Inverse folding.
Protein backbone atom coordinates (compact mmCIF):
# COMPACT_ATOMS: atom_id res chain seq x y z
CA UNK A 1 0.00 0.00 0.00
CA UNK A 2 1.40 3.41 -0.95
CA UNK A 3 2.11 6.23 1.48
CA UNK A 4 -0.54 8.50 0.03
CA UNK A 5 -3.22 5.88 0.63
CA UNK A 6 -2.65 5.63 4.35
CA UNK A 7 -0.86 8.95 4.92
CA UNK A 8 1.72 7.28 7.12
CA UNK A 9 -0.09 7.36 10.44
CA UNK A 10 -2.08 4.17 10.31
CA UNK A 11 0.99 2.14 9.52
CA UNK A 12 3.05 3.62 12.35
CA UNK A 13 1.86 1.14 14.94
CA UNK A 14 2.50 -2.58 14.51
CA UNK A 15 -0.72 -4.51 14.28
CA UNK A 16 -1.16 -5.98 17.74
CA UNK A 17 -4.67 -7.26 17.10
CA UNK A 18 -5.95 -8.30 20.49
CA UNK A 19 -9.30 -9.97 20.94
CA UNK A 20 -11.80 -7.45 22.28
CA UNK A 21 -13.42 -8.39 25.55
CA UNK A 22 -17.14 -8.01 24.86
CA UNK A 23 -18.02 -8.43 28.53
CA UNK A 24 -16.97 -4.75 28.88
CA UNK A 25 -19.77 -3.74 26.54
CA UNK A 26 -19.98 -3.13 22.79
CA UNK A 27 -17.08 -1.82 20.70
CA UNK A 28 -16.41 1.89 21.29
CA UNK A 29 -17.60 2.90 17.83
CA UNK A 30 -20.31 1.71 15.48
CA UNK A 31 -19.35 1.73 11.79
CA UNK A 32 -22.06 1.71 9.16
CA UNK A 33 -20.24 -0.05 6.32
CA UNK A 34 -23.04 0.52 3.80
CA UNK A 35 -22.66 4.30 4.12
CA UNK A 36 -18.86 4.25 4.31
CA UNK A 37 -17.07 5.20 1.08
CA UNK A 38 -13.58 4.22 2.23
CA UNK A 39 -12.21 7.76 2.09
CA UNK A 40 -9.56 6.86 4.69
CA UNK A 41 -10.11 10.03 6.75
CA UNK A 42 -10.93 8.28 10.04
CA UNK A 43 -8.04 5.86 9.65
CA UNK A 44 -5.54 8.65 9.01
CA UNK A 45 -6.83 11.24 11.49
CA UNK A 46 -7.28 8.93 14.51
CA UNK A 47 -4.56 9.95 17.00
CA UNK A 48 -4.52 6.50 18.59
CA UNK A 49 -4.56 4.48 15.34
CA UNK A 50 -7.62 2.53 16.43
CA UNK A 51 -8.58 1.67 12.85
CA UNK A 52 -6.99 -0.52 10.24
CA UNK A 53 -8.26 -0.64 6.65
CA UNK A 54 -9.85 -3.86 5.51
CA UNK A 55 -9.37 -5.07 1.94
CA UNK A 56 -11.92 -2.50 0.65
CA UNK A 57 -10.18 0.32 2.54
CA UNK A 58 -13.05 0.62 5.01
CA UNK A 59 -12.15 0.98 8.69
CA UNK A 60 -12.01 -1.93 11.10
CA UNK A 61 -11.50 -1.34 14.81
CA UNK A 62 -8.23 -3.19 15.22
CA UNK A 63 -7.32 -1.63 18.59
CA UNK A 64 -10.65 -0.77 20.26
CA UNK A 65 -9.09 -0.63 23.74
CA UNK A 66 -7.00 2.38 22.67
CA UNK A 67 -10.06 4.47 21.74
CA UNK A 68 -10.35 7.54 23.96
CA UNK A 69 -13.63 8.85 22.47
CA UNK A 70 -11.86 11.98 21.22
CA UNK A 71 -14.67 12.43 18.62
CA UNK A 72 -12.25 13.13 15.73
CA UNK A 73 -13.34 10.17 13.59
CA UNK A 74 -17.08 10.78 13.56
CA UNK A 75 -16.75 14.56 13.46
CA UNK A 76 -14.69 14.24 10.27
CA UNK A 77 -16.70 11.43 8.70
CA UNK A 78 -18.36 12.97 5.61
CA UNK A 79 -20.90 10.16 5.33
CA UNK A 80 -22.08 9.88 8.96
CA UNK A 81 -20.96 6.26 8.96
CA UNK A 82 -19.41 6.34 12.46
CA UNK A 83 -21.35 6.75 15.68
CA UNK A 84 -20.05 6.39 19.18
CA UNK A 85 -21.29 3.66 21.52
CA UNK A 86 -19.85 5.44 24.53
CA UNK A 87 -22.40 6.09 27.25
CA UNK B 1 -18.65 15.28 28.64
CA UNK B 2 -19.35 11.71 27.72
CA UNK B 3 -23.15 11.84 27.63
CA UNK B 4 -23.21 15.05 25.62
CA UNK B 5 -20.89 13.59 23.03
CA UNK B 6 -22.85 10.39 22.78
CA UNK B 7 -25.89 12.45 21.89
CA UNK B 8 -23.92 14.41 19.35
CA UNK B 9 -22.50 11.48 17.43
CA UNK B 10 -25.89 10.27 16.19
CA UNK B 11 -27.76 13.57 16.40
CA UNK B 12 -27.08 14.18 12.71
CA UNK B 13 -29.14 11.15 11.68
CA UNK B 14 -32.24 12.77 13.19
CA UNK B 15 -32.14 15.57 10.60
CA UNK B 16 -31.59 13.47 7.47
CA UNK B 17 -34.49 12.99 5.12
CA UNK B 18 -35.74 9.46 5.73
CA UNK B 19 -36.43 8.47 2.13
CA UNK B 20 -33.14 9.73 0.70
CA UNK B 21 -30.70 7.11 -0.44
CA UNK B 22 -27.38 7.07 1.32
CA UNK B 23 -24.42 7.22 0.82
CA UNK B 24 -24.55 10.73 -0.62
CA UNK B 25 -23.61 11.73 -4.17
CA UNK B 26 -20.29 13.31 -3.21
CA UNK B 27 -16.88 11.80 -3.88
CA UNK B 28 -15.35 9.77 -1.03
CA UNK B 29 -13.73 12.17 1.42
CA UNK B 30 -15.52 15.31 0.17
CA UNK B 31 -15.65 18.10 2.73
CA UNK B 32 -19.30 18.85 1.95
CA UNK B 33 -20.38 15.99 4.18
CA UNK B 34 -18.24 17.31 7.03
CA UNK B 35 -19.86 20.73 6.65
CA UNK B 36 -23.29 19.09 6.65
CA UNK B 37 -22.54 17.28 9.90
CA UNK B 38 -21.22 20.42 11.60
CA UNK B 39 -24.22 22.44 10.37
CA UNK B 40 -26.71 19.87 11.71
CA UNK B 41 -24.98 19.66 15.08
CA UNK B 42 -25.02 23.48 15.29
CA UNK B 43 -28.77 23.50 14.52
CA UNK B 44 -29.36 20.79 17.12
CA UNK B 45 -27.41 22.68 19.77
CA UNK B 46 -29.56 25.77 19.20
CA UNK B 47 -32.72 23.64 19.32
CA UNK B 48 -34.50 25.05 16.29
CA UNK B 49 -37.77 23.52 15.21
CA UNK B 50 -37.50 21.63 11.90
CA UNK B 51 -40.53 23.49 10.54
CA UNK B 52 -38.98 26.86 11.30
CA UNK B 53 -35.83 26.42 9.21
CA UNK B 54 -35.55 26.93 5.45
CA UNK B 55 -32.40 25.84 3.65
CA UNK B 56 -31.89 27.32 0.18
CA UNK B 57 -29.24 26.35 -2.33
CA UNK B 58 -28.30 26.95 -5.95
CA UNK B 59 -26.39 24.62 -8.25
CA UNK B 60 -23.13 22.89 -7.57
CA UNK B 61 -21.64 20.11 -5.50
CA UNK B 62 -22.17 22.02 -2.27
CA UNK B 63 -25.71 22.91 -3.27
CA UNK B 64 -26.63 19.22 -3.32
CA UNK B 65 -26.44 19.42 0.47
CA UNK B 66 -30.01 20.56 1.33
CA UNK B 67 -31.66 17.70 -0.55
CA UNK B 68 -30.60 15.38 2.27
CA UNK B 69 -32.00 17.58 5.03
CA UNK B 70 -35.38 17.23 6.67
CA UNK B 71 -36.13 20.98 6.79
CA UNK B 72 -37.94 23.23 4.36
CA UNK B 73 -35.55 23.12 1.43
CA UNK B 74 -35.40 24.99 -1.84
CA UNK B 75 -33.10 23.96 -4.68
CA UNK B 76 -32.96 26.90 -7.06
CA UNK B 77 -31.25 28.06 -10.25
CA UNK B 78 -27.53 28.65 -10.53
CA UNK B 79 -26.34 31.57 -8.42
CA UNK B 80 -29.86 32.64 -7.44
CA UNK B 81 -30.00 31.05 -4.01
CA UNK B 82 -29.69 34.41 -2.21
CA UNK B 83 -32.57 36.14 -4.11
CA UNK B 84 -34.83 33.14 -3.44
CA UNK B 85 -33.77 33.19 0.20
CA UNK B 86 -34.49 36.93 0.38
CA UNK B 87 -38.00 36.18 -0.85
CA UNK B 88 -38.51 33.45 1.73
CA UNK B 89 -37.23 35.71 4.50
CA UNK B 90 -39.48 38.55 3.39
CA UNK B 91 -42.57 36.38 3.25
CA UNK B 92 -41.83 34.71 6.59
CA UNK B 93 -39.66 37.03 8.69
CA UNK B 94 -39.79 34.64 11.65
CA UNK B 95 -38.20 31.80 9.74
CA UNK B 96 -34.50 30.96 9.95
CA UNK B 97 -33.23 31.12 6.38
CA UNK B 98 -29.92 29.48 5.56
CA UNK B 99 -28.21 29.55 2.19
CA UNK B 100 -25.72 26.83 1.35
CA UNK B 101 -23.67 27.82 -1.61
CA UNK B 102 -20.39 27.19 -3.33
CA UNK B 103 -17.67 29.51 -4.53
CA UNK B 104 -18.75 29.50 -8.17
CA UNK B 105 -22.42 29.70 -7.26
CA UNK B 106 -22.07 32.65 -4.88
CA UNK B 107 -19.22 34.63 -6.40
CA UNK B 108 -19.31 34.09 -10.17
CA UNK B 109 -22.87 33.54 -11.35
CA UNK B 110 -24.43 34.96 -8.22
CA UNK B 111 -21.76 37.55 -7.44
CA UNK B 112 -24.11 40.47 -7.90
CA UNK B 113 -26.76 38.90 -5.68
CA UNK B 114 -24.12 38.16 -3.07
CA UNK B 115 -22.91 41.75 -2.69
CA UNK B 116 -26.46 43.11 -2.62
CA UNK B 117 -27.55 40.64 0.04
CA UNK B 118 -24.52 41.81 2.06
CA UNK B 119 -25.42 45.45 1.41
CA UNK B 120 -29.01 45.07 2.59
CA UNK B 121 -27.86 43.16 5.67
CA UNK B 122 -30.90 40.90 5.54
CA UNK B 123 -31.10 38.22 8.24
CA UNK B 124 -29.80 35.27 6.22
CA UNK B 125 -27.00 32.90 7.16
CA UNK B 126 -24.87 32.02 4.15
CA UNK B 127 -22.50 29.06 4.37
CA UNK B 128 -20.09 29.37 1.47
CA UNK B 129 -18.22 26.13 0.83
CA UNK B 130 -15.06 27.21 -0.96
CA UNK B 131 -13.20 24.44 -2.76
CA UNK B 132 -11.40 26.76 -5.23
CA UNK B 133 -12.89 25.15 -8.34
CA UNK B 134 -16.11 24.20 -10.13
CA UNK B 135 -16.27 20.58 -9.06
CA UNK B 136 -19.58 19.41 -10.52
CA UNK B 137 -19.07 20.62 -14.09
CA UNK B 138 -15.55 19.30 -14.55
CA UNK B 139 -12.95 21.40 -12.78
CA UNK B 140 -13.19 24.81 -14.45
CA UNK B 141 -11.51 27.78 -12.78
CA UNK B 142 -13.75 29.69 -10.38
CA UNK B 143 -13.37 33.24 -8.97
CA UNK B 144 -11.55 31.81 -5.96
CA UNK B 145 -9.05 29.69 -7.90
CA UNK B 146 -5.69 31.01 -6.67
CA UNK B 147 -3.21 32.62 -9.06
CA UNK B 148 -1.02 30.07 -10.88
CA UNK B 149 -3.29 27.17 -9.86
CA UNK B 150 -4.20 24.70 -12.56
CA UNK B 151 -7.78 23.94 -13.55
CA UNK B 152 -9.25 22.55 -16.75
CA UNK B 153 -9.84 26.08 -18.11
CA UNK B 154 -6.43 27.31 -16.93
CA UNK B 155 -4.19 24.38 -17.87
CA UNK B 156 -0.99 26.46 -17.76
CA UNK B 157 -1.77 28.20 -14.48
CA UNK B 158 -4.38 30.79 -13.57
CA UNK B 159 -3.35 34.29 -14.66
CA UNK B 160 -6.19 35.98 -12.77
CA UNK B 161 -6.28 37.23 -9.22
CA UNK B 162 -8.77 35.57 -6.93
CA UNK B 163 -11.60 36.83 -4.74
CA UNK B 164 -11.39 36.64 -0.99
CA UNK B 165 -15.08 36.00 -0.11
CA UNK B 166 -14.68 37.26 3.46
CA UNK B 167 -13.07 40.56 2.42
CA UNK B 168 -15.73 40.94 -0.27
CA UNK B 169 -18.53 40.42 2.25
CA UNK B 170 -16.99 42.83 4.78
CA UNK B 171 -16.54 45.43 2.06
CA UNK B 172 -20.09 44.96 0.82
CA UNK B 173 -21.56 45.44 4.29
CA UNK B 174 -22.23 42.03 5.84
CA UNK B 175 -22.45 42.18 9.62
CA UNK B 176 -21.00 38.79 10.57
CA UNK B 177 -18.12 37.24 8.66
CA UNK B 178 -16.16 34.16 9.68
CA UNK B 179 -13.95 31.58 8.07
CA UNK B 180 -13.38 27.95 8.99
CA UNK B 181 -11.93 24.87 7.37
CA UNK B 182 -13.17 21.29 7.23
CA UNK B 183 -10.22 20.25 9.38
CA UNK B 184 -11.26 22.57 12.23
CA UNK B 185 -14.72 21.06 12.52
CA UNK B 186 -15.60 21.97 16.15
CA UNK B 187 -14.66 25.58 15.41
CA UNK B 188 -16.78 25.48 12.25
CA UNK B 189 -19.69 24.18 14.30
CA UNK B 190 -19.30 27.01 16.81
CA UNK B 191 -18.99 29.68 14.10
CA UNK B 192 -22.07 28.38 12.25
CA UNK B 193 -23.95 28.50 15.56
CA UNK B 194 -22.87 32.11 16.14
CA UNK B 195 -23.83 33.02 12.58
CA UNK B 196 -27.29 31.49 13.01
CA UNK B 197 -27.84 33.44 16.20
CA UNK B 198 -26.62 36.71 14.69
CA UNK B 199 -29.30 39.06 13.37
CA UNK B 200 -28.18 40.37 10.00
CA UNK B 201 -26.37 38.92 7.03
CA UNK B 202 -23.85 36.39 8.27
CA UNK B 203 -21.32 34.63 6.09
CA UNK B 204 -19.33 31.57 7.12
CA UNK B 205 -16.77 30.66 4.51
CA UNK B 206 -15.69 27.04 4.85
CA UNK B 207 -12.49 26.06 3.07
CA UNK B 208 -13.09 22.58 1.70
CA UNK B 209 -11.21 20.04 -0.34
CA UNK B 210 -11.89 19.04 -3.94
CA UNK B 211 -9.36 16.27 -4.33
CA UNK B 212 -11.09 15.00 -7.47
CA UNK B 213 -10.32 18.13 -9.49
CA UNK B 214 -8.37 20.79 -7.60
CA UNK B 215 -6.22 18.36 -5.65
CA UNK B 216 -5.56 16.08 -8.58
CA UNK B 217 -4.70 18.85 -11.07
CA UNK B 218 -2.49 20.69 -8.57
CA UNK B 219 -0.91 17.53 -7.16
CA UNK B 220 -2.13 18.04 -3.63
CA UNK B 221 -2.88 14.38 -3.05
CA UNK B 222 -5.77 12.51 -1.51
CA UNK B 223 -8.43 13.97 0.85
CA UNK B 224 -6.29 13.16 3.88
CA UNK B 225 -3.31 15.11 2.54
CA UNK B 226 -5.52 18.05 1.54
CA UNK B 227 -7.29 18.22 4.89
CA UNK B 228 -3.98 18.00 6.75
CA UNK B 229 -2.67 20.86 4.58
CA UNK B 230 -5.58 23.02 5.85
CA UNK B 231 -4.26 22.40 9.36
CA UNK B 232 -0.80 23.62 8.35
CA UNK B 233 -1.99 26.65 6.35
CA UNK B 234 -4.68 27.96 8.68
CA UNK B 235 -3.72 30.83 10.98
CA UNK B 236 -5.90 31.96 13.87
CA UNK B 237 -6.96 35.60 13.75
CA UNK B 238 -5.10 36.63 16.91
CA UNK B 239 -1.88 35.14 15.59
CA UNK B 240 -2.33 36.59 12.12
CA UNK B 241 -2.40 40.13 13.51
CA UNK B 242 1.21 39.71 14.68
CA UNK B 243 2.41 38.26 11.38
CA UNK B 244 3.75 40.20 8.42
CA UNK B 245 2.13 40.11 5.00
CA UNK B 246 5.02 38.00 3.72
CA UNK B 247 4.54 35.36 6.39
CA UNK B 248 0.83 35.24 5.64
CA UNK B 249 1.39 34.50 1.95
CA UNK B 250 -0.30 31.24 0.97
CA UNK B 251 -2.03 30.96 4.34
CA UNK B 252 -5.55 31.90 5.36
CA UNK B 253 -6.94 33.44 8.52
CA UNK B 254 -9.64 31.46 10.31
CA UNK B 255 -12.06 32.34 13.08
CA UNK B 256 -14.60 35.11 13.51
CA UNK B 257 -13.26 37.91 11.33
CA UNK B 258 -15.81 40.68 11.58
CA UNK B 259 -18.89 41.51 13.54
CA UNK B 260 -21.01 44.65 13.78
CA UNK B 261 -24.45 45.65 14.99
CA UNK B 262 -25.95 47.18 11.86
CA UNK B 263 -29.69 47.51 11.50
CA UNK B 264 -31.34 44.59 9.79
CA UNK B 265 -33.29 44.93 6.54
CA UNK B 266 -36.58 43.28 7.62
CA UNK B 267 -36.71 45.50 10.74
CA UNK B 268 -36.06 48.63 8.69
CA UNK B 269 -38.68 47.65 6.15
CA UNK B 270 -41.22 47.03 8.91
CA UNK B 271 -40.52 50.55 10.21
CA UNK B 272 -41.28 52.00 6.77
CA UNK B 273 -44.49 49.94 6.58
CA UNK B 274 -45.60 51.00 10.06
CA UNK B 275 -44.83 54.67 9.44
CA UNK B 276 -46.39 55.14 6.02
CA UNK B 277 -48.60 52.31 4.88
CA UNK B 278 -50.60 50.88 7.76
CA UNK B 279 -53.06 53.32 9.30
Amino acid sequence: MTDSKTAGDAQAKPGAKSKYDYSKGPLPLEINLTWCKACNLCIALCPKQVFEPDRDGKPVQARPDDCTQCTICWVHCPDFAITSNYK
Amino acid sequence: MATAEKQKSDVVLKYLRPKKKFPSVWCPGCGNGIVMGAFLRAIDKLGYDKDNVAVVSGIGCSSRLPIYLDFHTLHTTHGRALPFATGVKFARPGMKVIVITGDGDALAIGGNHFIHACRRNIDITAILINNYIYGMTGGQGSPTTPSAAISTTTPYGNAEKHFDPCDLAIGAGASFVARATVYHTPQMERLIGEALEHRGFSLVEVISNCHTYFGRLNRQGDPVAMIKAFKDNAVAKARAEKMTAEELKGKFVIGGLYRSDKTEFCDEYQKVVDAHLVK
Notes: The beta strands of chain B are 53-57, 72-75, 96-102, 124-130, 133-134, 140-141, 176-181, 202-207, 234-236, 252-259. The mean pLDDT of chain B is 90. The radius of gyration of chain B is 19 Å. Chain B has eleven helices and ten strands.
